[in-house]
Amino acid sequence: MHRPLARAPLRSVADYLCKSKHSLLLQERRNVAENLGFYRALMTTKGVEFLAHGTESTTRSLQMKIVDSLRLGERSKASNLLLDLGHANHSLRPDDFVHILNYCSRSPDPLFVMETWRLMEEREIGIDKLCYLLIIQALCKGGYLEELAVWQQNLSAVHEIWEDYIKHYSFSIIPLRKFIWSFTRLGDLKSAYETLQNMVALALRGSIFINRTAEGKLYSSRLDIPIPSNEALGSMKFHLEGNEQSIPSVDSKKFNCFPSNIEQCNLSMENSEAESSGISWVSKSETMPVTKILRWSFNDVIHACAHARNCGLAEQLILQMKNLGLQPSSHTYDGFVRAVVSEKGYNYGMEVLKVMQQRNLKPYVSTLATLSMGCSKALELNLAESLLDQITESPYPHSYNACLAACDRLDQPERAVQILAKMKHLKILPDIRTYELLFSLFGNVNAPYEEGNMLSQVDAGKRITAIEMDMARNGFQHSHLSMKNLLIALGAEGMIRELIQYLRVAENLFCCNNTFLGTVMYNTVLHSLVEAKESDMAVEIFKNMKSCGFAPDAATYNILIDCCSILRCFKSACSLVSMMVRDGFYPQTLTYTVLIKILLEDENFDEALNLLDQAFSEGHDLDVLLFNTILQKACQRGRIDVIEFIVERMHQEKIQPDPSTCHYVFSAYVDQGFHSTAVEALQVLSMRMLSEEVGTHDEKTQIEDDFILAEDSEAESRILQLFMNSEENVAVALLNLRWCAILGFSTCRSPDQSPWAVRLARNYDTRKGN
Fold first, then answer.
1. Diameter of the chain by CA atoms?
2. Please, what is the end-to-end C-alpha distance for the chain in angstroms?
3. What value does the mean pLDDT take over residues 169-188?
4. Residue pair 577/615 in contact by the 8 Å Cβ criterion
């Protein structure tokens, strides 16, 4: 057990440096060195007694073993011993680490001091001023001061260090590089960009010599250059505050001048171009370290653009690199691709990949993964999988999850099996997102619009059990989305008993801690119960939901109003609408659709049409589902008058028909024996379905030649391919028109000029006039 009363409040080094009245960072380096020398002399004078706060540490022996291991270069052994020290049975104090910190400050060893500090924080060991001083000394001497602020996620500390730096020192390229690194790690893209421009300006002003330490570390000779004036650098400023002109707004994705295609971003530059631009210094051997540092910093900012999804700034930086003669590396392109694909799409990213291939640059795994995810998002699965095939190893499943999500959207579970096989072959472990998609893909067996049966329910149960067992093996519990997808799958299969069982599991996992998730879970179950016409059970679940303190939302009320259509009780539905309004939720288009559906169960067409007018007068966006609800019941009851009125109302409201619209209208005429009218109506509605896809006369002619009037045996196959591309409405419309042509009916080029359409428009105007 720790001793909470004896532990001082834990403060970050950044806070200690920034808030202290006599902060070390606000002094000249000479003063810092003097202060550190003073404390070092004090420690030498007091010896072990000072280090141990007056008592010999009980862990001194283990500390000395760690120090000896570090001296011998056995860092792994030192790390293991440090872990042993951290897992000591007795309470640990700051002096149990002070010998280690002291050695790290003298070496210096900034990496091991951060490892030690991290362990102290994990064990909640209060850090006293002596430990702080030793940590600061190790990090300062090791050149990790900026990293220390970043590690603490303290952007304000980095800015204070920057302000202190520009106040007391001339600019040097190595510190600027560290500040850029710090700003990008903390998400300050604006400051990173401005500092990068300062670095470029410094490099262009004169010769900079980069030397190496004995250990091979780069450092710059101190340049006694005054801070350049604003006139010398144009709009570039060295202070990071109040400078809105030196960087385009990071919130804006549009810039005034950027390349319209990737060829303009190709960085292959002839030497003559560089010479004529006055940038011949990049080709000189003595400045190659400067070139590398500039490229590293450009890479940092471009990768920050990827995190910020700032495509425009990434393109600007690529062009600036071209102007400077800096050749991008694979790392540069990795950040650039991730920055641009999110906004410009996978096609733009593929052009970047071609540029890399021309320059014989091997793309990173993350580059290929980003492009594959972009292709999956666009449902280009063939290209997405071909990119995945180029990845020989990957520790992350994100790109594969994107492919699985595309398979889910396209309803292609068989293809998803192949992707899972690739993951298994590469030994890529799934994450919770993978399992969320698996429940959606494989939780139910039947295709959409097919009902479950005993055999499919048994198969679905086996699949769900297998997925859950794999989750358990990999240490995952259900997320709210995986549970929701599981509940949806059970409802789609009609597995009501299992649905209620898993609702209880969901209540224990999520509902007690998050009322919002609880409402979502209940809505999922209620919807499945209503779809299965289990109205009594739905009412019981709703009562239980309210008794447990979960407030219904608009979706809950709409589901329950739909439940009233099963009970055929319009009065109860109206009561629910009143409750809905009292709770602050107003009726939506879906609400009116359900209310009209209830009225139609009693064949009350007049009142249903009045309710339709009320929905329109209240400004609701009427959709095809609402009109199809009326058409379906009118078709069943043979109400041709209602059907013709609704079809023309849809046309007046510019609501495009769908396959269900065509089915109800065609079936109504056929049932009444009006076969010619049925075909004419089918033609008109099918052409209206294509109206948004086909505009010009040439396009219509091409459609007729390729699909409707084509005599080759592959015409139907071409139409069915549209189904595979999720263009169901277009495919159905083309099949309808081709079938009408086969029957010998001429194609109607202008559907509004059809005698049937003209008659509907005339009758509609007459009825509205009355």
1. 112
2. 87
3. 83
4. no
Helical (H) or strand (E) element with 220: strand 218-220
Q: What is the pTM of this model?
A: 0.68
Look up residue 482 and give its two tokens: 């995986």
Number of H-type helices and E-type strands within the chain? 40, 2
- Report which of residues 578 and 207 the model is more confident about: 578
Taking 60 as the threshold, does the pLDDT of residue 224 lie above it?
no
Q: What is the predicted pLDDT for the residue at 293?
A: 86
Higher pLDDT, 147 or 645: 645
**What distance in Å separates the CA atoms of residue 521 and residue 481, rounded to the nearest whole number?**
9
Question: Mapping DSSP to helix (H, G, I), strand (E, B) and coil, where does residue 334 land?
Answer: helix
Helix or strand holding residue 212 (H, E):
strand 210-212
Q: How far apart are CA 621 and CA 619, in angstroms?
A: 7
CA distance 404 to 386: 14
3-state secondary structure of 257: coil
Q: What is the dihedral of CA 624, 625, 630, 632, to 10 degrees?
A: 110
Query: How big is the CA angle at 129 (ends 124 and 134), to the nearest 5 degrees?
Result: 95
pLDDT over 80 (residue 82)? yes
CA–CA gap between residue 199 and residue 221 (Å, rounded):
15
| 3-class SS of residue 103 | helix
The rounded Cα 653 to chain-centroid distance in angstroms is 36
Q: Mean pLDDT throughout 547-556?
A: 87
- For the chain, give every domain's residue range: 13-155
Cβ distance 528 to 487 under 8 Å? yes
* pLDDT mean over 401-413: 92
In contact, 340 and 308? CB cutoff 8 Å: no
- Give ∠ CA 373-355-297 in degrees, rounded to 5: 80
The pair of three-digit structure tokens given for residue 188, joined into one six-digit string: 């300050």
Can you give the pLDDT at residue 548? 81
Rounded to the nearest 10 degrees, the angle between the axes of helix 454-473 and helix 480-492 is: 170
CA-based torsion, 46, 47, 51, 55: positive or negative: negative
pLDDT in tens, 601-618: 888 999 999 999 999 998
Q: How far is the CA of 706 from the CAs of 164, 658, 703, 743, in angstroms?
A: 72, 22, 5, 18
Residue 384 pLDDT level (bands cut at 50, 70, 90): very high
Give, in order, the Cα–Cα distances in Å from 205 to each of 78, 179, 191, 199, 221: 46, 20, 21, 10, 15
- What pLDDT, on the 0 to 100 scale, is given for residue 735? 84
Determine the Cα–Cα distance for residues 165 and 142; give it in Å rounded to an integer. 17
What contacts 363, CB < 8 A, 6 or more positions away? 330, 333, 334, 353, 356, 390
Query: What average pLDDT is seen over the chain?
Result: 78
Residue 552: count of CB within 10 angstroms of its CB: 22
For the chain, the 3-state helix, strand and coil shares in percent, each to the nearest 5, are 70, 0, 30
Residues 632 and 622: their CA atoms lie apart, in Å, by: 16
Decide: 722 and 660 in contact? Cβ < 8 Å.
Answer: no
Name the packing angle between helices 432-442 and 454-473 (round to 10°).
170
Residue 623: phi and psi, rounded to 5, are -120, 175
Tokens standing for 230?
């604003």
Residue type, 605: F
- Distance in angstroms (rounded) separating the CA atoms of residues 705 and 699: 10
Q: Which of 341, 339, 344, 301 is nearest to 320 (CA)?
A: 301
Question: What is the chain's alpha carbon radius of gyration, rounded to the nearest angstrom?
Answer: 35
Task: Name residue, tokens 């079938």.
Answer: 739
Which amino acid is located at 163 in the chain? E
- What is d(CA 756, CA 678) in angstroms, rounded to the nearest whole number? 10
